Amino acid sequence: MDLNTITDVRDARTREPWRPGDAWLGGGTYLFSEPQPRLRRLVDLSRMDWEPLTRHPDGSLEIAATCTIAQLSRHGRRFLDAPAAPLVEQCCRAFLASFKIWNMATVGGNLCNGLPAGPMISLTAALDGSCLLMAQDGSTREVKVADFIRGAGVKDLAEGELLRSVTLPGRALECRTAFRQASLYGLGRSGALVIGTLDPVDGSMAVTVTAATTRPFRFWFPLPPTAGRLRAVIDAAVTGPEWFDDIHGLPEWRRHMGLRLAEEVRRELTHTPGEGAR
After folding, report:
1. Fold for domain 175-270?
2. pLDDT by residue (tens digit) across 172-191?
3. Which of 80, 134, 222, 250 is most open to solvent, judged by the fewest CB atoms within 10 Å of its CB?
4. pLDDT tens digit string along 189-213?
């Protein structure tokens, strides 16, 4: 789609004062998908030459905001030697998008859109990722992905602030994972997406509920919970309005599927399929 309100496109390597009507341009798959009447100038990040993926000595994986879904998928399948590697491909596949979108859409763009069904939000929140945010004056701050997304389309992002990268801890990458996704249609947008991780070091478990909720909810347990405990914790934390409501699923259905998939994830990671709620 042509954006007929845009009067200028600036290279992000050139420092200029941020002004009203500016927006960061990554892959552009969202920006050019619908009218953006408030925008006047795009600040293009495509020539920043940030390394898409960096594995640090401590085992953590840093994902640049400009890393495309295709680059992340290739890294997860071919180069990431970690128990959690399959989760990367599972979340990439949750896009249900064409190869053209895969080669343009970025991890940072998916997070900064803040949509409940954003699979990069699901991936990075489940693996306890941290966002590196950079202000216009060059100062930086870090915030957990689960806290970065505050609601449907609402982010902890100040005017002119930039998401530089997301880092996944090495310990999280060593976790066993379980993935469940539900949609109203065979190839539809995620209505509920639940990821579980089991830490081999201390036996702790985390269950992250996304897509069904307006923001990611990550529940951490020092030991795997019972079915009843898991359900009670989710129900206590996710209030009525926080179960998302749109044409891809009613809140009641999303709650039902979120709880159901959370229990499936718990069972898979604890190998206790016959255990009942208690």
Report:
1. Enolase-like; domain 1 (3.30.390)
2. 999 999 999 999 987 788 99
3. 222
4. 899 999 999 999 999 999 999 999 9
